[in-house]
């Protein structure tokens, strides 16, 4: 299943302001320990609709609105989703050829569908976490070394 909900366009100033206000309003509801939350909406024709949402989905919605409120575009990708090499490269902020090299070296697992490579979203996230952790460790070692050598940092 390859489901990606994406809006790559940046929100307008009005959309950001509405999202900011909405995220604050909905965050208040999250204090409730209930597993679901019920909302009543009024359609453009005046009819009322009632919607029940799982609290976990509401938390995700609040996070999305907060990001939109900051002027950021938001994408939602299911953890089990398969990505194309271009989608995976975009997620890692690297070029597609570089990502293909990572795949061929075995850094990130993939499978082939005919001639096309497919990568699990979770595998891309795991790779990013491993590389971020390695970077942090290297920086910690460098700063400790700079302290030992009294380099003034």
Automatic annotation (TrEMBL):
Keywords for the protein's UniProt record, in alphabetical order: DNA-binding
Single Gene Ontology MF annotation: DNA binding
Pfam families per UniProt: HTH_17 (PF12728)
UniProt cross-references to InterPro entries, sorted A to Z: HTH_17 (IPR041657), SinI_DNA-bd (IPR010093)
Domain Helix-turn-helix: 83-130
Protein name (record): Excisionase family DNA-binding protein
Lineage of the species this protein comes from: Bacteria, Pseudomonadati, Pseudomonadota, Betaproteobacteria, Burkholderiales
């Amino acid at each position: 299943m390859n489901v990606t909900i994406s809006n790559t366009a940046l929100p307008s100033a009005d959309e950001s302001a509405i999202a900011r206000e909405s995220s604050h309003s909905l965050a208040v509801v999250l204090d409730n320990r209930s597993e679901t939350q019920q909302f009543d909406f009024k359609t453009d024709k005046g009819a009322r609709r009632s919607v029940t949402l799982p609290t976990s989905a509401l938390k995700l919605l609040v996070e999305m609105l907060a990001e939109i409120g900051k002027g950021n575009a938001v994408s939602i990708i299911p953890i089990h989703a398969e990505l194309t090499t271009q989608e995976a490269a975009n997620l890692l902020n690297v070029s597609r050829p570089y990502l293909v090299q990572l795949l061929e070296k075995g850094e990130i697992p993939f499978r082939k569908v005919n001639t096309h490579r497919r990568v699990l979203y979770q595998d891309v996230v795991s790779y990013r976490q491993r590389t971020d952790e390695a970077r942090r460790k290297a920086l910690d070692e460098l700063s400790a070394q700079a302290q030992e050598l009294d380099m003034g940092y």
